[in-house]
Amino acid sequence: MNDKNIDNSVAAPIAGDDGEAVETTSVERLPKPKEILEKPADSGWFVAVVRCNCERKIAASIELDFSKNKTWLELWVPLQKIVYIEKRSNKRRTKEKPFLPTYIFCRVSKKHLNDIRFRSDVYKMLTMPGQREIYQVPDKELDDYRRLVENPDIPAVAYMGPLKKGQKVKITEGKLKGLEAYVQRISEKKALIGNEIRYVCGATIEINRAFLELVTDG
């Protein structure tokens, strides 16, 4: 038999054993180690506003794109565990859902902010009320908040604030962008806002709270 025809994945019998061939693994089959990227010195936490109930899917897509481009990135989607009763089995089940709907926290270099900001699946990057500059969350503020949310002992409750009944707000997205109105009622994800013609009539609409910002007079 010609030695060249022997499969490279099978080793020749070793002297002293039972004469059985031993399968070996070639170097090419070993998984490549994951490349460790260095965190940029100017990296900071920013908040992307996305479609409700799509936070994890969009975060995974952002992470994949940055990984392909070998760009450093850290994402955090706050989650909370919900216990519910399954109708068919009548058993208690647990599932995870976003703790802060529509928000993805992104730790990234400022020069790569636009790689998130101008994605088709991102509505906007969060800004301070009345300002156009993208808001950077202080590291300690986010770290403290993250510890509070992720602690296993005391369940945290989301408080979207600072909206309160009677506050003046401005719509930041959509066809009504720039319209100012007053908060009438607040729910977990939406707010009822309205305007009126004094002594004549009022009108209200329900809108996602992520699309509102406070109006500060003066």
Largest sheet: 5 strands, antiparallel
Total domains, how many? 2
- Per DSSP, the total helix count is 3
The CATH architecture of the largest domain can be named as 2-Layer Sandwich
**Intertermini distance:** 94 Å
CATH superfamily of the largest domain: NusG, N-terminal domain
The fraction of residues assigned to DSSP E strands is 25-35%
Question: What does the oligomeric state look like here?
Answer: single chain
Overview of this structure, please?
It is a single chain. The chain is of the alpha+beta class and 218 residues long. It has two domains: 42-158, Alpha-Beta Plaits (2-Layer Sandwich); 160-218, SH3 type barrels (Roll). 14% of the residues lie in helices and 32% in strands. It has three helices and 13 strands; from the N terminus they run E-E-E-H-E-E-E-E-H-E-H-E-E-E-E-E. The strands form four sheets. Strands 12-11-10-9-13 form a five-stranded antiparallel beta sheet, with no helix packed on it. The longest helix is centred in the N-terminal third of the chain and has 14 residues, at 55-68. The termini are far apart.
